[in-house]
Design brief:
Structural class: alpha+beta
Helix content: 40-55%
Largest sheet: 4 strands, antiparallel
Radius of gyration: 23 Å
Number of strands: 10
Order of helices and strands: HHHHHHHEEEEHEEEEEEHH
Number of helices: 10
Distance between the termini: 29 Å
Number of domains: 2
Strand content: 15-25%
Shape: globular
Length: about 375
């Protein structure tokens, strides 16, 4: 989730736990700092842009690491605040909850987090909430601002903080239930439309859980279905796009391809941009402006060969007409994404190139 959400979630949790002991203002500040602590892994240097992408939200987001760090940080809080000297278990519980809730809500996004590292090294990414969702964040923000403005604890503040935490947690649960419902509906829609899909994945659209993007993954194509919970009768909004597997036939032994394939869980496409083979994670962003795209190969006279990975420019852009389309879909009105139409599958290969020799700098 975004940094503001992580801060206010940690602050709300800490206020609920320590507000009576430390006072709401100090409790909120402590929790806000703890709630942002796992994201300090962005300052860890990595060898290349792909490593920075796939290993962010790594060990620092593991609940097992949080359990090990809890006594250290908890004892530090007890030394810092005299009022916590006689409340060791309360301080420890607060630390663990602030750290672990950060990781858990990150795991609810499609980017995911390595929540159970090292026992389970793969990222957990549910995709039932977008990285920014005002309906989740605003109740927490309101009670945290209130807590920061109050010096003394009150039963009224306690009730509001508890209510905000219950609401935000329930909102996450509703998102998971809706995601399962949308995937079930999408599977039937794809079947009725004769769309071949090996895998189906529903992802919450930006800022809400009313509109969903469902990816139906095939071998050489993928289908985007946009589904609104308010949709009435009418044809489904489906777009089919190429994956161009021929472009990565020569790159499947490269470290760059293996990492991106693992992290994206196979939900990727490749394109020839100029002479560069660019691999995009289909789960993040709207076609064709995917948020994470990497050049991992190059086409020359000898064919396709791996290169040192490069983050591709022009990422995550909003296409013309997207806001009007999005607002219409939020209301359950039919719409057409022109960017999807312009990118649709034409059934033709981009290249039939041979495999060239790998360069010395290939990732």
């Amino acid at each position: 989730m975004d940094s503001l959400t992580q801060f206010v979630l940690g602050a709300a949790v800490s206020t609920a736990c320590l507000g009576k002991t430390l006072g709401p203002r100090k409790a909120a500040l402590v929790g806000g700092l703890l709630g942002t602590l796992p994201d300090l892994d962005v300052f860890i240097p990595f060898d290349d842009p792909i490593d920075s992408f796939v290993y962010h939200r790594g060990w620092s987001h593991s609940i097992f690491v949080h359990a090990l760090a809890t006594p250290v940080i908890g004892e530090g809080l007890r030394l810092l605040f005299k009022k916590l000297r006689d409340h060791r278990w309360l301080a420890w519980a607060t630390v663990f909850l602030c750290l672990s809730t950060h990781a858990i809500i990150d795991a609810m996004t499609v980017y995911g987090t390595r929540l159970f590292w090292p026992l389970y090294p793969d990222p957990v990414g549910v995709g039932s909430i977008f990285i920014i969702d005002p309906l989740y964040t605003l109740p927490l923000l309101i009670v945290v601002v209130w807590a920061l403005c109050k010096k003394n604890w009150s039963s009224r503040l306690r009730s509001w903080v508890t209510g905000a935490l219950v609401f935000s947690t329930a909102y996450l649960g509703v998102g998971v239930v809706l995601q399962r419902h949308v995937e079930s509906q999408a599977r039937q829609i794809f079947q009725d439309e004769g769309v071949p899909s090996n895998e189906i994945f529903a992802i919450a659209a930006p800022f809400n859980i009313l509109v969903w993007k469902v990816i139906g993954l095939g071998e050489d194509r993928y289908d985007n279905l946009y589904y609104s919970l308010l949709d009435g009768a009418g044809p489904p909004e489906i777009y089919v796009h190429p994956r161009h597997p021929e472009l990565i036939a020569c790159l499947q032994d490269s470290n760059s391809f293996r990492k991106l394939d693992w992290f994206s869980r196979g939900f990727f496409r490749t394109d020839l941009v100029g002479n560069k083979v660019v691999m995009s994670d289909l789960r993040m962003g709207l076609t064709p402006g995917y948020a994470f795209r990497f050049a991992i190969g190059e086409l020359d006279g000898d064919g396709v060969k791996p290169i040192a990975p490069q983050r591709h420019a022009g990422l995550g852009r909003i296409e013309a007409g997207d806001w009007d389309w999005f607002l219409a879909r939020l209301q359950g009105k039919p719409g057409t994404r022109e960017a999807e139409v312009n990118d649709q599958y034409n059934g033709q290969s981009q290249t039939a190139g041979q495999c060239g020799k790998a360069g010395a700098a290939a990732g």
